[in-house]
Amino acid sequence: MANNEELFKKITSHAKEYGFIFPSSEIYDGMAAVYDYGQWGVELKNNIRSYWWKAMTQMHENIVGIDTSIFMNPTIWKASGHVDAFNDPLIDNKDSKKRYRADVLIEDHIAKIEDKINKEVEKAIKRFGEDFNKEQFCSTNPRVLEHSAKIREITARYATAMQNNDLADIKQLIEDLEIVCPVSGTRNWTEVRQFNLMFSTKIGSVSDEADVIYLRPETAQGIFVNYLNVQKTGRMKIPFGIAQTGKAFRNEIVARQFIFRMREFEQMEMQFFVRPGEELKWFSYWKQERMRWHLSLGMSASKYRFHDHEKLAHYANAATDIEFEFPFGFKELEGIHSRTDFDLKRHQEFSGKKLQYFDPELNDSYVPYVVETSIGLDRMFLAIFANSFTEETLDDGSSRVVLRLPRVLAPVKAAILPLVKKDGMPEKAREIMNKLKYDFNLIYEEKDAIGKRYRRQDAIGTPYCITIDSQTSEDDTVTVRERDTMQQERLPIANLASYIRENINPLIQ
Ligand code: GAP
């Protein structure tokens, strides 16, 4: 655990040092849980968004994209349930005056029990060596069984209390588990209260007449309220999907773990409209399809897992999370939900407008059912960035930090490096740059020794370093150094564009 904390610290400082992510408003001492993307961060973020967008729209004939506004008619949030039920349970410690999410306190307590299980496993690995069978050990060892049962018991009690909105029992659970405030160390807690996560503001210039409006907490509702516009103008036939990326805002009580949980973040969501009764088939399709998208980026399959929801929200009839192993453990990266016809029916009711679809094959009208895929762009950024960060000791004993980003997502695809600043090398380098810059994002660097320049590119994840040397003027060839293997090969300048294109992972098929 301590090692992972250390690693996570390194990752966050690397993100700042190399221009990926800066704390927002830093010169004014920052702003909690809000971050700015720097020169390389914005490129990586744009590339992730575009990889998702193309996989959704370009690769699926029946999915189109839209871009809806952040401000919407406030009744939308009444209809969606956000005004009444988009709450987190919070609790204050009376001694430290610190505020916590009750569920996070309970989650942290569970994580401590999981740590105990992991310690038992580590001890057993040492004891049994090669013969160790983790599954068997975890299903038979009395201490592990006791810990696992405890976790199940806490999870079930918490879920029931939340479902019944029984805030008193959540407080009781915190007391029964003897959870203390990490700051004051005491158990002097307030009652648990519900806290609405939507940010509100007022519209209009005369404050008396001003109406309260909300900053959208999810992009999905912009899709629901435009579903008929898109269906009609795009002559879409069910099943079809609408995709959208954009900012969402949530007044998170506890914002932690860098860009994992922010107050202003970006979502990439897709609502897939289907015939009633066919939603579970499509739910299972999108579950596999989204996992396929993740794996197409080349990160290890062992880093991902599904977490099917046992207790479902009242509007859902199936839900799963794709979890990713962040440095702080497996956490939700993406949600896939079968949302029935809940949202469209509610909008129909609140707007008074019919939101039905006439199905020519069935010769019948109905409110479509919806399967949603929803992923946080910033969270995906963190997953990729953390997974790519590698510290290596090289054969000569020196070390390097390399970001092994999926090449298709790398902010810069190639660095153009004249070996020295003379003998016509910079001019030749500029010539190559001018040829390639229309197809690839490039960087030109002539300062410092070549080794130092390679290291700088490794640190921002540039897959190729193209070096122009004395041989270039003789035969129009250059050396191309690959980021991960550090192997170099000599290539004709004329082949560079096709070489880079072919070696940047193809988009998911
Ligand atoms: N429309 C469904 C919806 O918004 P959600 O589980 O609340 O579902 C979807 O959010 C995804 O958005 C999450 O899986 C996560 O990746 C991302 N997300 C949610 N809250 C976030 C936050 N505060 N900061 C960063 N990403 C967040």
Structure description:
This protein is α+β, with helices and mostly antiparallel strands and 509 residues long. It folds into three domains: 1-72 and 198-394, BirA Bifunctional Protein, domain 2; 87-196, 2-Layer Sandwich (Herpes Virus-1), CATH 3.30.40.230; 412-504, Rossmann fold (3-Layer(aba) Sandwich), CATH 3.40.50. Helices cover 39% and strands 24% of the residues. The chain is built from 17 helices and 23 strands. The chain has helices spanning 2-17, 39-58, 75-79, 82-85, 102-128, 134-140, 142-163, 167-176, 220-224, 227-233, 279-295, 342-351, 377-388, 425-436, 450-460, 472-475, 496-503; strands at 21-23, 35-37, 63-65, 87-92, 99-101, 193-196, 200-203, 211-214, 240-249, 264-274, 304-308, 318-326, 329-338, 357-359, 364-366, 369-376, 389-393, 399-403, 414-418, 442-444, 464-468, 477-482, 488-492. The strands form seven sheets. It has a seven-stranded mixed β-sheet. A five-stranded mixed β-sheet has the order 20-19-21-22-23, sandwiched between helices. Helix 14 links the parallel strand 19 and strand 20 (442-444). The longest helix has 27 residues, at 102-128. The radius of gyration is 26 Å and the shape is globular. The model has no long low-confidence stretch (mean pLDDT 94). The structure holds glycyl-adenosine-5'-phosphate. Glycyl-adenosine-5'-phosphate binds at residues 218, 220, 250, 252, 261-262, 265, 267, 269, 332-335, 372, 374-376, 378-379. Glycyl-adenosine-5'-phosphate binds next to strand 10, strand 13, strand 16 and helix 13.
